[in-house]
Amino acid sequence: MRLVFLGTPEPAVPSFEALVAAGHEVVCVVTRPDRRRGRGSEMSPSPVKAAALAHGIPVVHHVRDLEGIEADWGIVVAYGAMIPAAVLARFPMLNVHFSLLPRWRGAAPVERAILAGDTETGVGIMSLEETLDTGPVHGEIRVPVGEKTASELTAELARRGAALLVDVLASPERLQHARAQKGAPTYAEKLNSDTFHLTPTMTAVEAGRVVRLERAWCHVAGKRFRVLSAHEGEGAADATPGSVVAFGPHVGLAVADGVIWLDRVQPEGGRPMEASAWWAGARLASDAIWS
Q1: Direct distance between the N- and C-terminal alpha carbons of the chain, in angstroms, rounded to an integer
Q2: Which tens digits make up the pLDDT trace of 85-110?
Q3: How does DSSP assign 171-219, residue by residue?
Q4: CB contact set of 94 (below 8 Å; sequence gap of 6+)
Q5: pTM for the structure as a whole
Q6: pLDDT of 2-40, one tens digit each?
Q7: For domain 195-282, which CATH number applies: 3.30.360.10, 3.30.420.40, 3.10.25.10, 3.30.70.20?
Q8: How far is CA 123 from the centre of its chain?
């Protein structure tokens, strides 16, 4: 098939590569404009653009640049913007969406599934409509959430979704007979800094879910402090919420119902390190607090 591909971040690359490997003719890629990344001033392409250029496929940065291009389908994976109705009217589009629709329509389905404590999520191939993630579903795969981090779960869904996309495009039955979404929708709101803020009023389970998003932060002794990985465990169950707890070689943050024990951290102005190494060098008072 002749396809146009719309996508931007790393999780979109497996679907793009799967389409190329399956022999589809990707005639054009639409991705977000290059951005400055890192400490230098050089502009860097998106992961999807880098993959497209490696295959010699033309790249544009706006959907309006698809004018005059003919294709059988458009494929959208984490593009990062709504597709205008005029473009949808030109050719049908399939979207690889990382949830079990209609649960978690919207911008951050993986993270919202983790925060909500969902035991199961998945990936589906959906026909795009003008409204947000409301289209019928051509295929779906269920995936257990377990204790996976956001990046681990996203990578698994991206890989499984890429294979499912190829299968759907190869099946006239699936393409022609999508099922309507059933059930009450939930919406995966965009993430912001507060989403990742650990607080003493959280339970250990809630704090652990935030840490699994891999951007958790709080303040320790008045300084910003990143929690890169942590785990729930026994010990110091009577600790006051908001206190920093040392228990043998372990250090943790007391929350509403116990302690979340720190594995790797990054103090303000410092590098990532083992929590025990941070604690040994921090020289904090025995009554240190966090918030």
Answers
A1: 55
A2: 988 988 899 999 999 999 999 999 99
A3: -HHHHH-PBPP-S---EEPPP-GGGGB--TTS-HHHHHHHHTTT-EEEE
A4: 73, 74, 75, 76, 125, 126, 127, 128, 138, 165, 168, 169
A5: 0.93
A6: 999 999 999 999 999 999 999 999 999 999 988 877 666
A7: 3.10.25.10
A8: 12
Which CATH number, 3.40.190.10, 1.20.140.150, 3.40.50.170, 3.90.1140.10, labels domain 2-188?
3.40.50.170
The answer to whether 88 and 95 are in contact (CB under 8 A) is no
Sign of the alpha-carbon torsion through 81, 160, 179, 24 = positive
Token pair recorded at residue 160? 């499984």
Question: Which residue type sits at 246?
Answer: A
State how far the Cα of 250 lies from the Cα of 94, in Å rounded to an integer. 49
- Sort residue 218 into left (φ over 0), alpha (ψ -120 to 50) or beta: beta
Contact 239, 245 (CB under 8 A): yes
